[in-house]
Structure formats: structure tokens, C-alpha cells
Amino acid sequence: MTDERYLKRTILKETVESRFLPEGSRNLRVFLPPGYNEVLSYPVVYCQDGEDFFNFGRVATTATKLILDEGLEPFIIVGVDVDKKVRTEEYAPDGSRHEAYIRFFAEELVPYIEGKFPVKQRKEDRVLAGDSLGGTVSLHLALAYPDLFNRVMSLSGAFYASSQAIVGNCADLSWLTIYMIVGLQEDAYETDRGVYDFVALNRNTRALLEHKGAAIFYEEKDGKHQWGFWQQEIPQALRYFIEVE
């Protein structure tokens, strides 16, 4: 039976106007932690595939449990919705909408959140989280805006050749901290770009990041390229970035 305390949570629907995105706006959902108080300030976890993180990843329930039961510092979660029809174009670094999306994210979304909610505004207090291509775009956001972001949570990141080339061309990445997990049963996963070995993609990207000096948590374990696997991994990933009070 689910503890009632975990079900009492506040999730707001927000819309951010954008001059970069063709639609002119983007919908968000914002989780406010237990005991939320506007005189305090909070770290923020920004999730790509926002709807999926909340519905399939159960990130709000997980966060509530971690805060109430394990004493993690209360934090806000911002889930950024995506139209699945243009997801690859926005999230992949060679996608036609990628530059517009990352500019929206860094130059419009973050200022919107930091203007409306009492959040901490150091890069150490912003975490970028994503699954598959969501992990990819999170890394590329940090690479494009290192003054804003230096913490990335990648769940089975889709680090295709274009991403690996960008990482390979970076100089020093000692400022970056990245959490990477991948499932061992993701070695022949069919995507809209073909069949890929996600284990190999993540191993190669890890080696490139290590060579550039990034701080990396890396783990391979039994799991498939699906939310059933990622949902189980979110608590450990959040513990990695959010400290106990």
C-alpha cells in the first residue's frame, strides 16, 4: 500500500514563451518538494522528455520519498515536454531544430524558472537529466553553456557518431560531472536512425569524456532501453547529485 505522504505533492503546469522555437512556446510541469517555502531556495533537476519522466519514470514520487525518507535536500523538478514527432530533430546535435532548442532551454527556460521560483542559481545546483537522446541533448547543453550547466544525468544516452565527434573535439572537460548508466540488453536497439549497440556507444563516450578529464559515474547493469529499467535507476542517480541535508 502506498504511503499517503507520497501522494500529496504539488505539480504545476507552466508554459514558456519562446522566440527560438517555431511553435512560439513550450509546456512544462514543475514539481515543488514537500515543505516548499518561497523564502527558501532549491536546487533544480531539469528533465528532458518531461511528460515521460513524470508518467513513466515516476520522478515526482521518487523525489518525494527521497526527501521525506532519506533526508535529501528538497529540490524542484522541471519536466520539459517534447513533441515526439520532432524529438530527434531537437535532441540530436545534427538535428534541424537542435540549435533552436538548446537556445530556448538556456536563454529562455532557465531564466523563466529562476525568475518565477526560488531556486539556487549556481551551475552546481542545476542538474540536466535525460533518457536516450534526452541524455544526449543534456550533455550537449552543458557543452554549449558551461557557465550554466556542469552536471548531467544520462540514462542510456544515445551518443551517436555526431555526439562522439563533438566530445572528441572538446579541450578540457574537467569542469563536467556526468552520471551514466546503460543496460546490458541494449546491445541491438532499434531507433528511428537504425539499430545501435547502446552499450558500445556509452563505453566509447565514457572513454572520450575520461580522456578530456570529466568526472564520471559509469555503470552497466541488466536492463533494456525502456522506462521499466530507467525508473529503477532514478533514485540512485538523484542521490548522486542531491545531498542529504
TrEMBL record:
PANTHER family, sorted: ENTEROCHELIN ESTERASE-RELATED, IRON(III) ENTEROBACTIN ESTERASE
Species, as recorded: Paenibacillus nanensis
Protein name (Swiss-Prot/TrEMBL): Esterase family protein
InterPro entries: AB_hydrolase_fold (IPR029058), Esterase-like (IPR000801), Mycobacterial_A85_antigen (IPR050583)
The organism's place on the tree of life at top rank: Bacteria
Upper classification of the organism: Bacteria, Bacillati, Bacillota, Bacilli, Bacillales
